[in-house]
Every structure is written in structure tokens, then in C-alpha cells.
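hey so i finally got around to running the thing on that chain from the lab meeting. sorry it took forever, my laptop kept dying and i had to restart like 3 times. anyway pasting the input first so we r on the same page abt which one it is
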Amino acid sequence: MDFNKIAQEVLESEAKELLEASKKAIDWEAIIQCILDSKGKLIVTGVGKSGLIGKKIAATLASTGTSSFFIHPTEAMHGDLGMIEKQDIILAISYSGESDELIAILPHLKRLASKIITMSKDNNSSLSKMGDFFIPIAVSKEACPINTAPTSSTTLTLALGDALAVCLMKARNFTKQDFASFHPGGSLGKKLFVKIKDLMQMQNLPIICPEIPLKEAIIKMSEARLGTAILANNNQLFGILSDGDLRRAMMQENFDINASVKHYANLNPKYCTNENMLAHQALEFIEQNKIQLLVITDSNKHIKGAIHLHTLISAGIKN
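ok and heres what got predicted. didnt touch it at all, straight out
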């Protein structure tokens, strides 16, 4: 049995249904305007596979600027109808348009909500007859070999849900910043919102006097486990001693482990005076300058903290 061919046929079959659906007339203008004019939520409902797709559609809407959630018709009949308000809009999904659980709550949805958008294969279905707007999800054939399991139809329903969400995003001028505000734990949210001050280390920093012997500085570096010692006078940044500085020092003929650490340190180190700099910008600065530790100071070079390359990476900060 050629499973590669079978898989290809499934994808081609579902893609064909999506292309055919793109040619169908749907009154998107009226649907989008109705949602934009509403001051309520867009509540999605459905049972079975349609319900699972409905949950995803609601999640996509909610994360892209449209207040939305999913309710199950059975739970709605047992109290969840109390979540619906007069200004809300319902998106009801049923391929057949005849799902008993959904049909049973439709009179209550019409009584409680503002408008109903239906998704079914036929606008003459029991479901769609009771709706105000109709989005067709009919397919000529399911991708499954017995033309029964919801495959092409659920893919089409999901894609139409995405089309609805994207239209609303465009209408609302939804930006990356807006998306990140709803996804603060995602990579985009971290990139746009996490700042140096949120991650920098302020306690137990390896701060040393520039005059101490190098061997004492090495001990301090080892204890702090940052691979770097920070030289300072009265907490004012004086220099940096990194692992690289130490290795280069040891290659010198006149290397003296008892000499003052300032003789081997970088006395013109890179530092940052803006603790509100975005963390991803700090990562870019660190990588560009090929350093591992960035010291944060005030405008007078008084040390406020430090942030290590590994801290940024561990926090999921990326460029």
C-alpha cells in the first residue's frame, strides 16, 4: 500500500475544497460589520468535531483582538446560557445543520443574543434558517476513503474561521504589538515587552577593587560563576575581567598572578545605562560585541546590575 500517495491525495482533496470555497459568495462585509458594531462577545458553539473546530476558532479570535469564547450546547442548556448577554453574537457550527443539541438551544440563543451567524452545508438547514448570517461549509467529498469522517469539511470550517479572524484583524488594524500583549509568554511577547531590568542580576555580583591581586580576582570570579569579575571604585564601574582577558594575560611573558587585577582587565568595557532596554536588544548588543556579561549602570557609571548571555537565552530571548 502506497501511503505516500494516500497522504498526497488527502492533501490535494482538502486543498481542492478550500479553493472551491474561495469562489463562493459570502457576505463578509455584513458579517464583519455586524461584529465590529457589536459591543459584546463573539460566542462560538457546536458539538462533536464541529465543536472541536469551534474551540480553535474561538481561541484564534480571542488572541487576535475579538473577545470570544466557546460554549457547549449541552452545558448551555444547564446554566451556561447565563454567560450570554444581549449584545453578544453567536457563531453556531454544524455541518449537517441538524445537530439536536444545537437546534435545541437556538430559540434561547435568539432570545438572549443580538445576532446569530451559522456555519452549515446548507442555508436551508434547521440551523441556518434561524440565523441572521450564513457561511457555507459544504464540500463535494470528504477526504476519508468512505466519505464519512469529517476531514475536508472540518478543514474548510477551520479555514473559514481563520478567514473571519483575519478579516477582523485587518478591520481593527491589529498589530504585532497587540498580538504580543495577548501572548506575553510567547517569543514575540518576550521580544516586545521583556526588558533588561526584568532579568538583570542585582545581588551577589562579582564586584572587586581594581587594586586586589589577580589571584583573589580569580577566586571571586569562580565563586560568582559568571565567568567575569567587575572592577569598581565606590561602586563606579572601572573595568571588566573576563575569562578571555585572563587567558590572554596568562600568555604574556611577564604574567604575575600577584599583580593588581587592573593590569590585566579591560578598562574600557561595554556597559549599558538603560535598564529599560528591551532584552532582545541587549542580546543583540552582547552578541555583536562578543561579550558574555553586560553591566548595567546609571549615567554616572554607578553599577545597578548585570545581565549574562546565558540568562537571556534561558529566558527564551531571541533575535
